[in-house]
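subagent[fold] <- orchestrator: predict structure for attached chain, return tokens only, no commentary.
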Amino acid sequence: MGRMIGGVLVGVIGSFIGAIILFMVLAAAVGPDGIADPTTKVPTTMWIVLCLVVSGATAYLGAAVARAIGKDKTTTYIYLGLFAVLTIVSIAFAGGEPPKPPEGQPEPTGFLKTMMVMGEAQMNLPSWYMIVSPLVTLVGIVLGGFNKSDFDKGAGSAIA
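subagent[fold] -> orchestrator:
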């Protein structure tokens, strides 16, 4: 049981860190105008698609790593349960206003501006995204967690 819980924790934390890194790299690559329309702050279609791809890919890898460490499909069920709880919590706390720079401060530039635009775009995602994103993540977890991959055969066979 400890191995399964450890696998889930490593998978979730790795998935979270991987998503943060991917989002930062993608945000730097597309820039503020590629993330959202500068006037309306509505995310671009490209950014929405990138968000869905990152969600699915990191969920797949996180579940595959959890399954490899846990060595049992029960690990994937635990992973799915944790995903369900985190999804309900994130939906419950969704909304609000993105932070605004203090009055009298200059407008941010460079990567800080990109991060602020990304935060504003997150607040202006279409309503259907709150349904589609968890579904894409769910598919990633199911494919990654229930797929008996080379991970299950041992560390050496995944490389060979």
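orchestrator: received. Logging for downstream: Helices lie at 2-35, 45-70, 73-92, 110-123, 129-146, 155-159. The mean pLDDT is 83.
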